[in-house]
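Researcher: Here's the sequence for the chain we discussed earlier.
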Amino acid sequence: MSNDSPACPVDFRVDADERFGDAHRQYAELRARCPVAHTDSLGGFWAVTRYADVLQLLGEPETYITSVQNVVPKVAFTGRRPPLHLDPPEHTPYRAVLNPLLSPERVALLEPTVRRLTREHLLPLLDAGEVDVCERLGGQVPVKVFAAWMQLPAHLEAALMDAGPAFVRAVEANDPEAMKATSLALYDMARDLIALRHREPLDASTDPTSAILAARIDGEPVPDAMAIGMVRQVLVVGIVAPLVMTGNICVHLAQHPELHAQLKAEPERVPAAVEEFLRLYTPYRGFARTANRDVEIGGRPIRAGEPIALVYASANRDEAVFENPDAFILDRPNIKDHIAFGRGAHYCAGAALGRLQMRVLLEELLSATSRVELAAPPVMSPFPELGPWQVRVKLHA
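Model: Thanks. This is the structure I predict for it:
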């Protein structure tokens, strides 16, 4: 697929040595000159960068489907994992199982646990000198939070602490064999957890695995393969974005000490800051759809079956929607228009939990520190995430 037509003079680059901010400069160029671009990298895909186009695709799940490919690069090798890998209406019963367990009211009950875990991992870093906050904070707290939400026994929590980050590292390295191996390890965990909950079921109103096993679709239990896939999906889906956002927040606070000081003095503004961080540093750029027929987007013909990346990170800095989009502005009048968690049928089920973790992280970080100092340039994550996966800092009490 060539991208050399006069209407689209620039190609979509996937840089291995990306620096902090590089992607957003490229996305601004693409929005202006080539809003629907193509690359041959990562198996080849289209990238949709304007807010209006991304919103249109999210609103047409009957045409732009997730059951073929849902991220770029394609990382699913071992069967379907509901609800993400299914299209409406097939996905809907599976979402109905998860939604009550991830409602804002249910998630709020986890706040004491999230705060305790955040403090336990943050406070030792104050005396540690130079540390990687992505590894020591963002890479550990979300795993333990998910383990608490899923009510994992100790041996499976310990296994997830190894298997979850190993899968993330394989994806970051774009290593298909390692991705397969680590994904299979997560499947083994899912089977073990399902077998345990068959023997020792918990309250289905609070335990995700028991809820999956208790669910009925057309009067029948969830098929074993789907139950295993669903547990496998939730084991890892909420681990990567918090790691990347931890890095984004720390880099931004280090570069803007005045914001650190303002939020420390006005902690009631932290929830608004969380929303602006989500807009400014949306951690996903490769959530994908596949058109099930030939379509035209932004004047570009796209054939049925070709993967399309919905670049949320670009859409959330679209100057046609967000004034002065590259600036951090508290209390933006239209901040609710950001799509960091997507929209429509596949809106992120864990949005409330993600917001809770970010708010608590920011509150505890501001409370414990007077400033954050960058000790080395951030190391950026490749597709499908956008943000650093290594940030070495000094946290000053």
